[in-house]
Amino acid sequence: MPLAFATADTAAIPVHVLQADQAPGFIAALPDPAQAWAGHQGFTGALGQVLILPDAQGGIAQVLVGYGTAQARARGRFHLGAVARQLPKGVYRIASGLTGLDLEEAALAWVLAGYQFVRYRKPAEPIAGLVAPDGIDAARVQIIAQAEALTRDLINTPASDMGPQELETAARALADAHGAAITVTTGDDLIAGFPLIHAVGRASPRAPRLIDMRWGDTGPTLTLVGKGVCFDTGGLNIKPGASMGLMKKDMGGAATVLGLAQMIMALGIRLRLRVLIPAVENSIAGNAFRPQDILTSRKGLTVEINNTDAEGRLVLADALALADEETPDLVISMATLTGAARVAVGPDLSPFFTDSDDHAAAITSAARQVADPVWRMPFHDPYEALIEPGIADLDNAPGGGMAGSITAALFLRRFVQSPYVHFDIYGWQPSAAPSRPKGGVGMGARALLAALPSLLKL
After folding, report:
1. Cβ–Cβ contacts within 10 Å for residue 240, how many?
2. How far is residue 294 from each of residues 36, 195, 225, 422, 443, measured CA to CA in Å?
């Protein structure tokens, strides 16, 4: 069932969201029995506290929710998502305590709390419903939630059911739903135009492909490029088992750009959108590409392969070169690219790279507004020498073990002359958090959506 607000109901149960310093005054204004009940329950307005106040018939009269202090709230986000899962079945409305962006975040949190990945099991009981609060764009919130659900579903699906063909099918379904055009180059047809994509994917019995979707005919041009490595064994530089365990999520960049594309198209944003997804499985076979092979990219740059497990930047390179040939107003790549990015900022932040201070400011500001945290990383030019092996133009896996996320980003930048932003995301929630169950998760997409007016002068 699509994530959505509950149907408006005049009998919806009111929810009052109270900061810690507001709780005593609110409780003091309640009838004596309710005051006594709040006292017995120890309700102080601490973050995450939930107090259900009964009516005379034993039903629910209203709900008090603790919103704590600003310091407590800063240690997390989507706090009302946790509340939604604690309440008895019914329909609720946020009656007081939140306005503006806080109210919008709370509404999105509540809707996202209803997400379940149910492809392989029966769904659990749905959470309590929420009537769309006054003062927010309810349709926009629902579109964002449903696009996030698409991203999560794609990442959560195991590689047995989400290979390059299945990823293409998902892209085609999205294109059909929004009247977008789509073309796909598959298998040996990649050799001439997309040699790096072909080299990475050729060892799998599931043919590699380059998915190319277009939508919109007016406005600025935006090209999204998403890494679609549907499973990554590491190739001949095979990963240890512990590192291979989560590699179904290595197409998280593709899943995230498809989610962002769904937001853009469903909202009818006036721009010309292109989505490029190199979809491959990095497998092991006699025809797999090898360490110290030298490959020639679509752009003509040669690449020495020093680790076949650094394949994501290879498939992205050909897609970025194609994107750049049209000189779009902005190119954005999203990829689960490096473990170095996880070491640097952990699983909750989306690190991004750009040479434009204006773009960085717009993305950072938007991220704060929509509770989608990001962190700018540097395209540090002095490290360019690290990706130049001498025998070829570029090295796909420079040694030394330092600055891995930066050197990967610098590698990608060699294939783009247009304005460019690169996200090195994780795409996975390692443990359950409010509105984010353990599993696949979108990162950076909501921040980019909010930043588009500034990024593209819409």
Report:
1. 8
2. 76, 11, 24, 25, 33
Q: Which tokens hold the place of 416?
A: 């783009």
Nearest to 330 by CA among 236, 200, 417, 412: 417
d(CA 162, CA 248): 8
Distance of CA 111 to the CA centre of its chain: 16
Cα(268)–Cα(148) distance, rounded to whole angstroms? 17
Three-state helix/strand/coil letters over 107-152: HHHHHHCCCCCCCCCCCCCCCCEEECCCCCCHHHHHHHHHHHHHHH
Residue identified by tokens 């929420």 is 130
With 0-12 / 13-18 / 19 or more C-beta atoms within 10 angstroms meaning exposed / middle / buried, residue 381 is exposed
Could you list the active site residues?
A: 239, 313
Helix (H) or strand (E) holding 24: helix 23-28
pLDDT tens per residue across span 189-228: 999 999 999 999 999 999 999 999 999 999 999 999 999 9
Residue 8: pLDDT band with limits 50, 70, 90: confident
Please report, for the chain, how many H helices and E strands are present, in that order.
16, 19
The answer to whether the CB of 145 falls within 8 A of the CB of 3 is: yes
Burial 84-104 (b: 16+ CB within 10 A, else e): beebeeebbbbeebbeeebbb
Question: By the 8 A CB rule, do 30 and 111 touch?
Answer: no
Query: How many whole angstroms separate alpha carbon 224 and alpha carbon 274?
Result: 6
**CA dist., res. 72 & res. 383, Å (int):** 39
pLDDT digits (tens, 9 = 90+) for 346-377: 999 999 999 999 999 999 999 999 999 999 99
Domains and CATH numbers, the chain: 13-128 (3.40.220.10), 142-455 (3.40.630.10)
When computed from its CA atoms, the radius of gyration of the chain, rounded to whole angstroms, is: 24
Query: Which residue(s) pair with 294 in the sheet?
Result: 304
Largest CA distance in the chain: 82
